[in-house]
Amino acid sequence: MKNWLDSLVGMISPEAAVRRARARNVIQALRRGYDGAKTGRMTSGWVTAGTDANAEVAMASVRLRDRARDLVRNNPYAAKAIMTHASSMIGAGIRPRPKAQTQELDDRITDLWEEFAEQCDADGRTTFYGIQNLMARSMVESGECLLQLVRRPSSFGLRVPLQLRVLECDHLDGTSDRDLPDGGFIQQGIEFDRFGRRAAYWVYPRHPGSTRTGLSKSIRIPASEMLHLFDRLRPGQNRGVTWFAPALLRMRDLDDYDVAELVRKKMEACFVGFVINPEPPAGTGGDGEDPVKQVENLVPGMLEHLPPGRDIRFGQAQYTLSQDGKMLSIFIPVQFKRRGGRKMIVAPDGVIGMRAERDESMIQAVAKAWKWRQMLDRKEVLSLSEIAAKEKIGGTYAGRVYDLSLLAPDIVEAILDGRQPVGLSLRELAKGIPLAWEEQRVKFGFGG
Predict the structure, then answer these.
(1) pLDDT tens digits, 56-83
(2) What Å distances lie between residue 390 and 378, 381, 386, CA to CA?
(3) In whole angstroms, what is the distance from residue 137 CA to residue 239 CA?
(4) Confidence band, pLDDT 50/70/90 cuts, at residue 47
(5) First vs last Cα of the chain: how many Å apart?
(6) Overall pTM surpassing 0.70 (yes/no)
(7) Staple 198 to which of 25, 34, 132, 223, CB 3.0 to 4.6 Å?
(8) Are 433 and 407 in contact (CB under 8 A)?
């Protein structure tokens, strides 16, 4: 925008006025720029690097992979995520369908394929469809997976003399990184020719993390005998990264939060009340009277019969943290009433009361969910689809039952004890279980 000074300069020297206008436009363009590239207090801790994809993967892939595997082993959300991804990608298995010129030839091809699918695993532990699921799980968990094509002699008696062996990406010799005399090079265990094409893989015959002593030397396997499965995210990327990489820290924090919440709930359940005694207990003043038994350990629902002169009071359902963060004070409101000749603890208004009835169908479903989860953890089965086939049930129903293994421990305990809220049924649980335990308690009426 021109001002009176610009007008005056323009009348005296038009060339100078043009230079002033150009300089003003340059300054305005610099001020606009990209907000994401600005520096200041809000971006002072944002550390970035300009390395290529392979340099980033080489520096971080091993640690990311190990942490992702630990999450899958110990975090139910990670275990559910990897199973969901594998089931979504593979399902019951990707099956080929021949389209030959005649139906007879189609049938012969199909028979030969089915025989190969049953015998293709070099370790003899699964089928072709199980290999697909295993590779999908490995790609999500570790970021990449290897499939070795093993040619068999006629002595094996195979109509298709080929078998497949799934290898974890740990088998790749990541320390192999050098130039070759013919103009090629080896980078992160992968050999490239002088045209940049994959020529071979340098692989450890034995897993580097094996409990067997000693580390074997890597051997060269031609690229024609090896398949490398990974999700290529950047141009020039040669190795994969675990799909959990963007969420590792948040999932770990969520795991710690769940543990802290569970400990807090346990403290809350065991905290019943304070015994108020303005006078010292009998027998503590040396007057020869019998001492009064002191109650030091409390259990859920405990009510102690107090001697005359003592009182018991219950606090409010509030949580107070001390300023130094070292003490958490918990106050819980309860009432004692008699119903049907029995003494009951009544929760505050707005919280659904518990009932003392065991729902056997719900208990059996929870037990079945945990059984299936243990089968998956021990690799007795590779997917829910395999479980559904063995149980002769639908895959959708199997998934809904398996989701019961994600219930919070206190909810599972309440169901087993018959203390679930009135109106809670297996049908209600099958409508969907939130991942967060606190959301589960609120949705199903456990007063979370």
Answers:
(1) 898 899 999 999 999 999 888 899 999 8
(2) 17, 10, 6
(3) 16
(4) confident
(5) 61
(6) no
(7) 223
(8) yes
